[in-house]
Structure formats: C-alpha cells, structure tokens
Amino acid sequence: MASANSEIPAFDSGELKELKQKLVAGCHILDREGITDSFGHVSIRVPGTEAFLTIAGVSPGCATLDRLIMLDLEGHYLGGDKSSPYEWPIHALIMRARPEVMSVAHTHSRWSALFSVIRGGLRPIHMYAKFLPAGGPPIYPAAGLIGTFERGEALAATLKDANAVLLRAHGDAVVGTSLEQTIQRTIQLAFLGQLAHMAVAHGEPLYMSQDELAIFSSDPAFPARPWEYYLSRIRERHSA
Amino acid sequence: MASGKKDVPKIDSSELKELTDKLMTACHILDHEGVTDGYGHISVRVPGADAFVTIANVSPGCVTRDRLIMQDLDGNYLDGANTPPNEWPIHSCILRARPEIVSVAHTHSKWSTIFSVLPIKLKPMHHYGKFLSADGPPVYQGVGLVRTVERGNDLAAALGNQPAVLMRAHGDAVVGESVEQVIERTTRLAMLGEWNHLAMLHGEPKYLTAEELEAYNADQRFPMRGWEYYVSRLEEKR
Fold first, then answer.
1. Nearest CA distance, B29 vs chain A (angstrom)
2. Domain ranges across chain A
3. Looking at CA atoms only, how far is residue A63 from chain B in angstroms?
C-alpha cells in the first residue's frame, strides 16, 4: 500500500473537487438532520490511496470547501487548512484496519450517547438496522477523546468488522463503503436509537433476530434514494 | 470598591462595544437554542471594575442595545436603560464572591428545573459534563425570586466554587470565565439534563467517575467551536 501514496493527488487538484463537495454536503446533512452539534466530523478516503479528507477544526454545519484538510493514515498533513481535527485517529486507524471502508463519521448523537451508558445495548426493532448485528453495535468503554494513535487503535479493535461502534459517554463512529452509505447509516443509527428508546416506555419490544435482519438484507437496497432526499433538505440552508 | 467606579467606562463607549455585542449575541443564542423563554438573563463583568452589564428587564430573545443596563456590585444603577432586572443580585452576589468569574447566566431551563425537584441528581453521563463535578451541580433550596442581596448571597454560597447551581422549582445559574464559556456550559447543562432524563427510562445510567472526567479534562479544548456554531445558527434565522 505504501506505493499507493505516491499517487495521492495534490489537495488543490481538480481530481479531488467532487470528493470535497460530497464531504461538505455529508457534514451539512448530519447537521441538518440534528445528529451533530458543534462537534463531530466525517472523512472520505482518497480512492486507492492511504489518505483521507476531513473537516479542519470546524463544526460540521459550518464546514466549507476551504476548511478541509488532507491527512495520511499516520496523521501527517498532506494539504488544506492546517487545523487538524483532534480526533483524527478515529478516521486514520479505522481506515487502516478496514481497507474496504471509504468513509467514517463520528458524532455525539444523543441516541448513541444514551445507549452507550445504559444496560441492554441498542438492539434493532426496525429493518433500518440491517447493517447492525442483532445485539446492537459494540461499545468502546474508555474515557477520553480519541486523540492518540493508541486510542484510535483500541477503537478500531472494538469496532472490528462491524459497521458502527458506540463510544461510552461520547457518541458513535459509523463506517461505510461510500460516504453516502456512511451518512445514511449514521442517520439510521440515530433513528433506531430513538425508536428503541420510545419502545422501552411500553415494556420490552419485539427485537429483530439475526435471521430476520438477514432476510431484509437480501432484499434490494436503494442507496441513492436517501442521499437525493437529504441533499434536497440541506438546500434550504446551504447554497454551496 | 468605590474607587473602581471612577474608572467604569460608559455603556455605549467603544471600549465596551465588543463585550456588549457579545452579550446580546449570547442572549439570542440561549433563546434560539430553546434554553430561555420570556425570562432569564446573562451578565458580563466590566473588565477591571466592580460593575457588570446585563439586560434591562427584557427577554433574552428580545434584547437590543438600548435595553442594556450597567450596575455596580451593590446593585446601584450606573448607565444604560434604567430598568434593572428583578434578580440583579444573582449577578452581583456571584460576581462579588467569585472574582475569577466574568459572566453569569440565569435561566428557567426545563432540564435544570426538573432535576432541581427530583431525588436523583443531574450527573455527567457524557463528556459534555466534564465541567461539572462527578456528583453534579448543587441545588439552591431557597424559595422566591433572588431579588435581595441576602438571597443572592445564599445562592452564591450554594454555588460555592462550582460552575453551575440548580435553583429549586426555578432554574439554574451558570458561571464562566468568558461569555462564550457560559453559553457553552448553559447549553450543555440543558443537553445533559435532557439526556439524563432519557436515560432514566432504562434504569440508572453508567455515570462518568471523577477520574474519567479528569481524563476528558486532560484532552485539548476547543472553546470557540461552539460559539461559532451557535452564531451560525442565529444567522440562519435572521
């Protein structure tokens, strides 16, 4: 993989323009849908390389094309705004451990924060959870922001081959094979948390089994549908 | 203290422009984020003086430059609109007791109110509560608006050296070393209250211990991130 790094396009090259626009749109979507607040970030891998783009020390809702940064998977600066996000190891260490992952989102979603500190886990009661295990996402238990290589590695180890991990008293990290998928999953994880919370007020809900989730997974997926929809909802706020 | 008064700049002076602009923005933020309603106020200490500026008996969401007031720490009128807020002692008594404090917010936040009357405490179950002690904010038990120096002193005593105090059946008072910090703390106190409330449906949550809060407090801070974000949300509204 090291050889791939020689092919990383320059930060300002036209080649990266579409990725950057998609990244900014993904950030604005998470803000618009009420998932992120002042904090949180999204990354996108530069295809075929060991580099990624993310937002440079700015709230997702305030992200612009000139507040992005490019880093390699060791956190070295490769271009853009120089304010590296403190928790860059979330992105670098997950992308390093999971070569198929093209995008990572980290949020302080209230629903992830909630299910990270209660007993029982965020267990699926809706088919939107088909990207999750029936027991719910794993929980990273340690205190402290993911500001070091070691913590990033520990987080990636907790995530393992799952698509989402809750961070105790903190939030979540969600991965996908495209940025669109990561954004959709992040929103669905929040929806699932809210639903599971509401259901518990009525007693124990009927949770889905792994077999049932597999049945929904074998149905056709429509990945472009929600992206188009969420984009339409941010146009009201962001004209960029 | 009387000597402090001589040096107090006028409320409309260019010297105080940035601070009073920030105060008004802060009031609009708490309104926009749903923390304050028709009541509540924020104050900011006049640098180097025994005086503060707050909003002159107007809702935080409706504040304008001509509705600011400056008072000294005895509550004497100094400048601006001459309609002091009923609860000016919240600000003067806390600013007097805590010389390091620059700004005080008082709100009727629903989340502070609910935890002020429950046997359970509003304790940090998320790192947004890292400014609090592991045991959560103290509760001021007094009844009645804090409109006398005696009540103000009781409130300041209940606050002690903490960053926030809940006021039973009333709301909260939150302090900080800058207006930005007070806004971040006040909005986060409300978020934590809401999240604690949500968690209770599932049984007692796992709270952060004092050691774990310390681990979070050892991380780097981003004091302006929240301010930039909340200001951007106001601009969207305008």
1. 13
2. 2-234
3. 10
A41 within 8 A of A57, measured Cβ to Cβ: no
Q: Does A147 touch chain B (CB under 8 A)?
A: yes
Count of other CB atoms within 10 angstroms of residue B46 = 26
Is A203 an interface residue toward B (CB < 8 Å)?
Answer: no
CB pair distance less than 8 Å for B219 and A147: yes
Model confidence, pTM: 0.93
Q: How far apart (Å, rounded) are the C-alpha atoms in residues A40 and A25? A: 14
Determine the Cα–Cα distance for residues B155 and B172; give it in Å rounded to an integer.
Answer: 10
Disruptive mutation site among B227, B233, B234, B237 for chain A (greatest number of A CBs within 10 Å): B233
Question: Of A110, A240, A98, nearest to A155 (Cα)?
Answer: A98
Pairing of strands A51-55, A68-72: antiparallel
Q: What is the dihedral angle through the alpha carbons of A228, A229, A232, A238, rounded to the nearest 10 degrees? A: -90
Binary contact (A200, B202; C-beta < 8 A): yes
Contact state of B229 with A62 under an 8 Å Cβ cutoff: yes
pLDDT at residue A5, as a whole number: 53
Note the pLDDT tens digit of each residue in A183-193: 999 999 999 99
Q: Answer whether B232 sits within 8 Å of A59, measured CB to CB.
A: yes
Rounded to whole angstroms, how far apart are CA atoms B52 and B75?
A: 9
Q: Do B225 and A110 touch (CB under 8 A)?
A: no
How many angstroms separate the CA atoms of B28 and B33, rounded? Answer: 8
Q: Which of A108, A119, A170 sits opposite B202 (nearest CB)?
A: A119
Write out pLDDT tens, residues A53-95: 999 999 999 999 999 999 999 999 999 999 999 999 999 999 9
Q: Are B31 and B59 in contact (CB under 8 A)?
A: yes
Determine whether A231 is exposed, middle or buried from the number of CB atoms within 10 Å of its CB (0-12, 13-18, 19+). middle
Kindly provide the b/e burial profile for residues B107-146, where b requires at least 16 CB atoms within 10 angstroms of the residue's own CB: bbbbbbbebbeeeeebbbbbbbbbbbbbebbbbbeeeeeb
Superfamily of domain A2-234 in CATH is Class II aldolase/adducin N-terminal domain (3.40.225.10)
Rounded Cα distance between A71 and A46, Å, is 10
Longest dimension (CA), chain A: 57
Report domain extents, chain B.
Answer: 2-223
Q: May I ask the CATH architecture of the domain B2-223?
A: 3-Layer(aba) Sandwich (3.40)
The per-residue pLDDT for A222 is: 85
CA distance A104 to A87: 12
Is the separation of the CB atoms in A51 and A70 below 8 Å? yes
ipTM of predicted complex: 0.90
